[in-house]
Amino acid sequence: MQELTPDQIRQSFVNASRSEVKAVTFPTDFDAVDWENLDYLGWRDAKMPQRSYLIYPTENGPLGLLLRAPDGGSGKQRKVLCDLCRDVRCETEVYLYVAKRSGPAGRNGNTVGTLICANFRCSGNVRFVPPSKAPHLDAEAIRSRQIGGLKQRIELFFARVKG
Ligand SMILES: [Zn+2]
């Protein structure tokens, strides 16, 4: 994805109030983000660990989501699959993240949830092609199919949030 500025990100949220956007804490390593190898940018708010953010680039500019992790979210969901990358090897935790819906539905407390890698490393997961597959199949084709699947599922999630 293309590099984004903090201002572009602040303006991208589809389900956050003005005060919630104001309170966003950017990752400490924001200057070192490897944009080229990301399909979305995701991070946990260092000051408010219940809050996370997911920013996804589209033709019409980036779209941002404010997500909530479950209370006391811990590694109990290790055996479930991330809904976005569907990576089966991934040993990291997967959380059920909840997003407030856009507009009036969200103000009335309406939410949608999805399972996402707790560390938001889905982009790295879909770029990995197991060596066992590579000799038989074209690794680049597998990778681009996996990336396409990730993007499609992110778009579906945004569609559910925007209703
Ligand atoms: Zn994932």
From TrEMBL:
Residues of the Elongation factor G-binding protein C-terminal treble-clef zinc-finger domain: 8-161
InterPro entries: EF-G-binding_C (IPR032330)
Protein name: Elongation factor G-binding protein C-terminal treble-clef zinc-finger domain-containing protein
Source organism per UniProt: Psychromicrobium silvestre
Lineage of the organism: Bacteria, Bacillati, Actinomycetota, Actinomycetes, Micrococcales
